[in-house]
Amino acid sequence: MEQRYNMQPEEAWKAIIGNDAAYNSRFLYAVVTTGIFCRPSCKSKPPKRENVRIFPDAKTAQAAGYRPCKRCKPTDQRLPDEEWLLQITAALDANYDQPLTLADLADICHGSPYHLQRTFKQRTGITPVAYLQNKRIEAASRELLHTDRPVAEIAASVGLPNTAYFITLFKKLRGFTPREYRNQFRQEEVTPNGSC
């Protein structure tokens, strides 16, 4: 934990882990992996200690490139939905290959699952789950065309370890089973316009 304040690192860490509101006026903490900064009392999932950066105030945290938490509002202002949408999309893009629930995503993006779902759908026209499914199928499509890895292995690598579900979802979104997709489109890539 990087020290940029007048306090012992252990004291700050205890305040963060304990969600201690008594420290809210003394420092803010940012999480490197999410790009978000919070009050010590924030009820978000506890970060890994090595990913925490401490700042004396919101201005300093923002100058370092961190965005305010949607949950604890460390600037006492509401984060604009457009910024939050970018944060949600970046989290989905970075974690598509991991098991990810709406609650997990809400924790990463420091908001409530209900508000996150509603905001994302209002702004994009699709749910976070639909976005995630599309992202996973796009990645699987690339793998199918550019590798010889088995379908089950590709499914697991894009965050869909249930092969039967992966095949069903792939066919729903692409109109082909993964094997049909690989056979049809890999062939077209190798022999454009059907010529030899």
UniProtKB/TrEMBL annotation:
One of its GO terms (biological process) is DNA alkylation repair. Its EC number is 2.1.1.-. InterPro entries: Ada-like_dom_sf (IPR035451), Ada_DNA_repair_Zn-bd (IPR004026), Homeodomain-like_sf (IPR009057), HTH_AraC (IPR018060), HTH_AraC-typ_CS (IPR018062), Me-P-triester_DNA_alkyl-Trfase (IPR016220), Tscrpt_reg_AraC-type_HTH (IPR020449). GO terms for molecular function: DNA-binding transcription factor activity; methyltransferase activity; sequence-specific DNA binding; zinc ion binding. Residues 86-184 form the HTH araC/xylS-type domain. Keywords: Activator, DNA damage, DNA repair, DNA-binding, Metal-binding, Methyltransferase, Transcription, Transcription regulation, Transferase, Zinc. Its cofactor is Zn(2+). This is AraC family transcriptional regulator of adaptative response / methylphosphotriester-DNA alkyltransferase methyltransferase. It comes from Paenibacillus phyllosphaerae.
